[in-house]
Amino acid sequence: MSQNIKEQFKNVVHGCAAPYHSKRADKFNDAIDTAWKIYANSSFDDMLDLAKNFGDFVREQYPEKNRAYLVDKDVIQTYMNSKAASWSQDTFFTNYSRLKKLEICCKHIYFRDSEKFNWHMDDVIVPKSVKEAAHKKDTPIPMEVSRVILADMREKRSEVVNAVTLSAYLGMRAEETTCLKPKSVHFTGGEFGLGWVQIVRGPEGGAKGGRPRVIPIIDKEGQNALKSVVAGKKLDDYIAVSERGGKMGPDNVEGAICDALKLKYGNTYLFNDGHGMRKTFAQRYYDIVRPGRKKSKAVSKTNEVLGHGSKRGPSGIKEYVKNMW
Question: Is the full-model pTM beyond 0.90?
Answer without folding.
Answer: no
